[in-house]
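Recap from last week: sequence in, structure out.
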Amino acid sequence: MRKKLLLPVALLILLLSFSFLRSNNSSVPDFPVAQNIEQLAEVTIEIPEGASGSEIARLLFDNGVIKSSEAYFRTAVGDKRSEKVAPGAHRLSKKISASQALEQLLDAQRIPNLVKIAEGAWSSEVITSLLRYGFSRMQISSAFESLVLPKGYRDPEGLLFPAQYTFSKGTTAQQAVQTMVDRFMKESVAIKILSGDQDFTGAQLLTIASIIQAEADQKDFERVSRVIRNRLNVGMPLQMDSTVHFVKKIRGEIFLSTRSTLINSPYNTYKRYGLPPGPIGSPGVAAMSAALNPEIGDWLYFITVAPGDTRFTRSFDEFNSWKSLYQKNRKAGLFG
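Predicted structure tokens:
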């Protein structure tokens, strides 16, 4: 008889618990999902460095973005993406649901003065981005001079991790640039790069990764990595166009003139044998991984004959036949 009574009691408790939770959730004030966001008023709020979910919720409520701080807090607790909300300024619509508020906080297009560092970016391009952000050239110069770099490094080229950065109000130029170096040092593959391997020092591997980043699409990274190693092993000059582009500070040019290959620079891998003296940009995670893990192959040459069509070979004759195809496609406008 007792067992028969236990089941209805347990079921009653379960139903009451569900009813309580449902009632408790519905009691939290929240604006309905807005259908015409572009017609709503907007406000820019500043999220401090290290702000908690409850502190962000209070800011949103105080600025009229959400109907209650509890609504956002509950949304944030249930969505791990809330941990990626960046400090700094955010442009938000007013009177939107808590879920829409989170989406807008995660939208990079709604972050004023976002500093975007592309994979392969030169330090000179990072400086340009920081100038656009609002730092003065003197502040940036001082920041670069006072950077804390990994042991043995004097130049930040290659160490400014490519990512999107937003900084809280009052951030100095030195703090901003140091954040990029510190971000690099948090990547496990970067630590492996700086440790070196049986063939190359950390600095050499970082240089190889930067060339890989500049020379190929991601799908070809591991093969380009192998070409670099193969050429170094047999004593061939690398002859990488990207190293000359780095010297000339030019982007978007596929064709490299004979005159450009004669530039007198230690970075010109057409004139100088071996690796250039340092990185030619900031490699991303995939390029660094490829530098450590080249694909197995005997290739010595590669060429992109058309957008998305990069070919690899050990034969110089085959390379020349593909080069003719590349020239034909370039004249036909396939490269834009």
